[in-house]
Amino acid sequence: MNLLKGLDKLILKIEEFILSYAVIIIALMVVGKALSRALFNYSPPFADEVSQIAIVVATFMGISYAARKGRHISMSAFYDLAPFKVRKILAIFIPLVTAIVLFVLTYFSALYVYDVYDSGRVTSALQMPAYYLYIFIPIGFFLGGIQFLRNMWINIKDRNEVYLGTDAKDYNDQTKHEVHEGTHL
Amino acid sequence: GGGNGDENAGGSEGQTYNWKFVTEEVDGQVQYEYAEEFAKRMKEKSDGAVNIEVYEFGGLGSETDQVEQLQNGAVEMAVMSPGFTGNMVKEGQIFALHFLFPDSVEKTQQILNDSEALNKDLRGKYEEHSISPLSYWTEGAMQWTSSKEISEPADFQNFKMRTQTSPLILESYKAYGADPTPMSWSELYTALDRGTVEGQENPIFFIGDASFYEVQDYMTISNHNNYVAMTTVNTDWYEGLNDEMKTMVDETVSEMQEWVFEEQKSQNEKWLEEIKNDDENPTEIVELTEEQREMFKEKAMPVRDFYRSDVSTVDGKILDKLQEEIKAAGE
Amino acid sequence: MVATLLTIMVVLLLLNFPMMIPLMAAPLIVLFMYFPNLDPMILMQQFSTGIEPYVLLAVPLFIFAADIMTTGKTSNRLLDFIGSFIGHVRGGYAVTTAAACTLFGAISGSTQATVVAIGKPMRERLLKIGYKDPTAIALIINSSDVALLVPPSIGMIIYGLVSGTSVGDLFIAGIIPGIIVFLSFAIYSVIYAKTKDIPLANKASWSERLKMTRKALLPLGFPIIIIGGIYTGIFSPTEAAGMSVLYAFILEVVIYRSIHLKELPKIARSTGLVTSAVFVLVAGGQAFTWVISFARIPQMITETVLGTNPSAVYVLLMVTIFFFIGCMFVDPIVVILVLTPIFYPAAMNAGIDPVHLGVVITFQAALGSATPPFGVDIFTASAVFNKPYLEVIKGTPPYIIMLVAISILLIFFEELSLILL
Ligand code: NA
Ligand code: NA
């Protein structure tokens, strides 16, 4: 169990690190290119490509982190009106199906990565193998699938609360009066 | 992956074919018009048995996506620019070399039709990737538009030129002393307007269609190279066609060469007139003298060595052969 | 096929599935059911294609800059400065929000970036002085909309290419409709503030204003860098987003020292989280678009509704409806690319001016991205403000009513766009 906890912590740290630095790298590349062109009349050709790699990495590696924090966007209009029991059932059912879909996506995106690898395609500026970029898609889907399974599990284990993610309890139970206040518009 | 056009067998006589033909341009532009005409002719010849649906650019993703869709058989046919496959079939970047083909677009088209280097050797390179180029054709010569006059290489000094990101294209503009600036298409109009970049290259019809001339003061008729497109098919699908269909496709491909030449010519001429006559957005047309053209060509020549050493996977053999053919055609 | 797509989308959404699931699963299921010969790999390339456009980078960059500014002092100083001039005016903050969103949206070219960059600080101030959250968010989302209409509009640039229409003319034609939208929002804001009795600040004295101005001198560099940088052509809009991160960093970390360098990765992480939550939907939307385009669904539907020789008003009405619905699902730029060629020939036959058509299309694209049930601006607001979906859309009806009314005006009076030409 401790080993699992340690592993969870490690994955969390890695996810956080990747998200942080993907954003910082985008900022550095875009600013660097602009300043370099304005001051030295030179546009580093790799800058755009590095930013684009970073945005793909952030997007897909962020799936599991957002799932953990319960921050994926959903149309909660009807869910929010449901009683505790219905929400509890949904909180088990939804992550399960979501995880299954993400695993299916993992499979097909892994096949796609192999296809790109096979074609030998390189990126246009850095001339590096193009599959380096796409490999983050199956990894992101897979980690996302695992995290949604964990979201399901915590809802099965703890009978008294509804969790939107392992690190996020349902706002409907926490901030009842705050939400209520906002409704008379 | 293999090709799999829907074929509804109803006895060999009543068989119908549904194929998809994707292009990199939108309705009205050269590639799209080509595909529409192609579809029309195939339908007529087959008495309605061949039904080709033409897709314009936009809904099916990026140009690179479309290449992959042809490769794994989601679409059977595609008009493709070698530029968008250059990261996979390196030899295809040959068309990005400046002043390789003759100044005359007509002569260039003749070479594209007849060249063995292209129609056999380069085609072989593509077929390693399940792409069969059945023909090469020009969409018109590429021209420069700019915010200051460009008539000799010295004018490119410290000039921010929008280009694509491939190392060969960057090298081509560095050779003139310009500062090649990669920039996405969607930002280009505003960037030209505000002077973030000072110039760009495209065939005239595209310069007109995308309104670039509205935010540029000069257009140099540089004819520095041609925008070449290829009519491509999925190799496995094509090889699997019955003889009758294959002959029909080949015939149509070859008769379309003349048609598309006239099409690009009339579109480019029409837009040239429109750009010249737009008094609200005046654009000065700069014609190069033979001397000025030679000056550019001289600067561009060393880039061919870069192509041989840094791009080509066959030490420039296809380029060498093509150069011979071009030379022979000139005599 | 359309029924299958819609059923999957609606059922999964109403059940409160993460929105990426219907967007990514529905195209996959349609492929399995209707195109069994096709390799589903095709959809995977679309995921990355959807988020690769360079202009989209402005979104995480503006989120990052806004996160730095609101964590530190910059944002409050700017808002105090604005407040000292308009705090005593009825609806002053709301009108300022509308103006700032319109202006910023026009310049940055991204409605999403505007929701973040202007919306984030302005919302906090609006809440502080007594506005309800749904009202504040609706105001922000909808004023950011107008971004697509005011030059240099990316939507118009794309329409210009697809249709061969002059981009310069389109820019000019968008001005009056843009102003009408802004004015209606402004008038509504004043009326709202009056009827809801939003408390007013005391009118600031000129010495107070001077003090606030002095404190805001450095933060005022923001608009100068962004607007000045783009208009003089030193930076592209995306680069201006990058420069605003740099400037926020210099102010907060170097000059005010309100943020320690060590805290920066934590701020970036929160930016990354929000970016991911929004961009997985953009990725899914692209795959969704691919299936719809591949199956020729827009052509099928429009052929049926347009019939032969439709009248100009009818065509414009259909354009309005289709672009509106399309933009509920996917990025407005993609919708313009896909739908324009389908309607353009019918519109020309009916004698509609291509420039006017462009304005109507751009207007609907903008409106669609801020209207429930789907919409990139709603997603962005939900992610950035960390608010449940219902809270985000609850305040939108008055704005939708205003925008629909202006749409109808546009259909019947093409002069609104053409008179300045
Ligand atoms: Na001009
Ligand atoms: Na919407």
UniProtKB/TrEMBL annotation, chain A:
Keywords: Cell inner membrane, Cell membrane, Membrane, Transmembrane, Transmembrane helix, Transport. One of its GO terms (molecular function) is transmembrane transporter activity. The chain crosses the membrane at residues 12-30, 50-68, 89-110, 130-149. GO terms for cellular component: plasma membrane. It is found in: Cell inner membrane. The keyword Manganese does not apply. The keyword Membrane applies. Residues 26-153 form the Tripartite ATP-independent periplasmic transporters DctQ component domain. One of its GO terms (biological process) is C4-dicarboxylate transport. Pfam families: DctQ. Coiled coil: none annotated. It is a multi-pass membrane protein. It comes from the Bacteria. Belongs to the TRAP transporter small permease family. This is TRAP transporter small permease protein.
UniProtKB/TrEMBL annotation, chain C:
It holds the Pfam family DctM. This is C4-dicarboxylate ABC transporter permease. It comes from Halobacillus mangrovi. Residues 7-416 form the TRAP C4-dicarboxylate transport system permease DctM subunit domain. One of its GO terms (molecular function) is transmembrane transporter activity. It is found in: Cell inner membrane. It is a multi-pass membrane protein. GO terms for cellular component: plasma membrane.
